[in-house]
């Protein structure tokens, strides 16, 4: 690491911890304005996120807005020189640095956000990010789900009290604190000939929930998802059906394999931890293995996964591709985060729409570019869109629709 990079790292950490002096702050801005620090700055931002603590001193919204305005103003003041670049790259690189610093400034106040625009085409000149009126804002998702019993009875879990919800044969169905549903088998082990009921747990857009199945396997459901499962596992295998996305921690039972059915695809496991993403509006079904081993099959095609691998089933080609998984990105939703890693805007907006229960409308076609970033899912919608606007894309909220304009 050369002298400039060492100094940049020192000043960056001082700024992030809010111990920087006025002179050091100006020196940091001067270093960022130079060429050659883009990758170093990104690495520092990644480090800042990894060590971020919720109990650290936070900037007030007013302070963040003031600092953001200053960065944007400095960008605009320096743009004339950059525009003279023959290849047009000067303006883009200068904006990348400005966006990175602005994202840093918002990081503590917005619950942790790191944004990086990697579009190859020059970006349009952005305007300073604005704060949307409170009436336009949308709260984030929460623990919301509906349990549909075998007889068709619906139980809205977010409005039901904790404790015993119902009994189904020898199984007690309980609502626990913290957004959790649990099935407890009572008495002796059921026989294979006993009648088994099937329940369905459904999360709406803007909802998530956890269920402990009768075999003590744990399942976390993401927004706009559903899980169909028996009230007791009595046969030679444990089978559930999934739509949407869920993370599984399967209780070990060598005599009864666990199987997740997603349309005509099957994920077969014993004792393991894995995530399945199978939304209808996505082009593929992704199964990611954290621990143990699973076999993914579709028709005559099957694949064995090792920990750290992801099976990507293309819905149109019916082809399974195995690749190394980005675990932070896969598990972000369960940890209360959005995680973007080279995502295009439509992919990002699908995630946002599910969590905030919104529709998305593109008024001028799909903006080009790829984004990398992390942000807390606890933020209101306006806070998320405010930072995304740093890329030069503009948003407005009209009822339950997010309108996107380049």
Automatic annotation (TrEMBL):
Protein FecR C-terminal domain location is 338-403
Concerning InterPro entries, the annotation shows: FecR, FecR_C, Ferrdict_sens_TM
Residue ranges spanning the membrane: these are 95-116
Q: Which UniProt keywords apply?
A: Membrane, Transmembrane, Transmembrane helix
Work out whether the entry's keyword set contains Transmembrane. Answer: yes
All copies of the FecR protein domain together span 200-295
Listed Gene3D superfamilies: 2.60.120.1440, 3.55.50.30
Tell me what this protein is called: DUF4974 domain-containing protein
Organism equals Compostibacter hankyongensis
């Amino acid at each position: 690491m050369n002298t400039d990079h060492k100094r940049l790292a020192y000043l960056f950490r001082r700024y992030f911890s809010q111990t920087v002096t006025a002179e050091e702050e100006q020196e940091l801005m001067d270093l960022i304005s130079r060429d050659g620090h883009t990758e170093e700055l990104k690495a520092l931002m990644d480090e800042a996120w990894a060590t971020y603590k919720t109990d650290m001193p936070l900037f007030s919204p007013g302070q963040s807005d003031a600092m953001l305005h200053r960065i944007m103003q400095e960008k605009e003041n320096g743009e004339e020189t950059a525009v003279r670049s023959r290849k047009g790259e000067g303006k883009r690189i200068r904006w990348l640095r400005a966006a990175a610093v602005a994202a840093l400034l918002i990081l503590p106040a917005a619950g942790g956000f790191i944004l990086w625009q990697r579009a190859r085409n020059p970006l349009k000149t952005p305007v300073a990010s604005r704060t949307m009126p409170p009436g336009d804002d949308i709260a984030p998702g929460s623990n919301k789900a509906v349990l549909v019993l075998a007889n068709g009875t619906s139980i809205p879990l977010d409005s039901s009290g904790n404790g015993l919800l119902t009994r189904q044969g020898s199984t007690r169905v309980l609502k626990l604190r913290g957004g959790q549903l649990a099935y407890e088998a009572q008495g002796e082990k059921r026989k294979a000939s006993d009648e088994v009921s099937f329940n369905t747990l459904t999360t709406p857009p803007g909802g998530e929930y956890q269920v402990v199945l009768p075999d003590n396997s744990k399942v976390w459901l993401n927004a706009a998802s559903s899980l169909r499962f028996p009230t007791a596992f009595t046969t030679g295998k444990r089978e559930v059906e999934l739509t949407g996305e869920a993370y599984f921690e399967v209780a070990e039972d060598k005599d009864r394999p666990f199987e997740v059915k997603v349309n005509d695809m099957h994920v077969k496991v014993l004792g393991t931890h894995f995530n399945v993403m199978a939304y209808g509006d996505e082009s593929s079904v992704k199964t990611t293995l954290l621990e143990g081993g699973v076999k993914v099959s579709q028709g005559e095609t099957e694949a064995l996964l090792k920990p750290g691998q992801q099976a990507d089933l293309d819905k149109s080609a019916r082809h399974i591709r195995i690749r190394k998984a980005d675990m932070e990105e896969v598990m972000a939703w369960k940890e209360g985060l959005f995680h973007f890693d080279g995502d295009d805007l439509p992919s990002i907006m699908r995630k946002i729409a599910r969590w905030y229960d919104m529709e998305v409308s593109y008024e001028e076609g799909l903006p080009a570019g790829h984004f990398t970033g992390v942000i807390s899912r606890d933020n209101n919608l306006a806070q998320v869109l405010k930072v995304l606007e740093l890329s030069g894309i503009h948003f407005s909220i009209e009822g339950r629709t997010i309108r996107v304009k380049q």
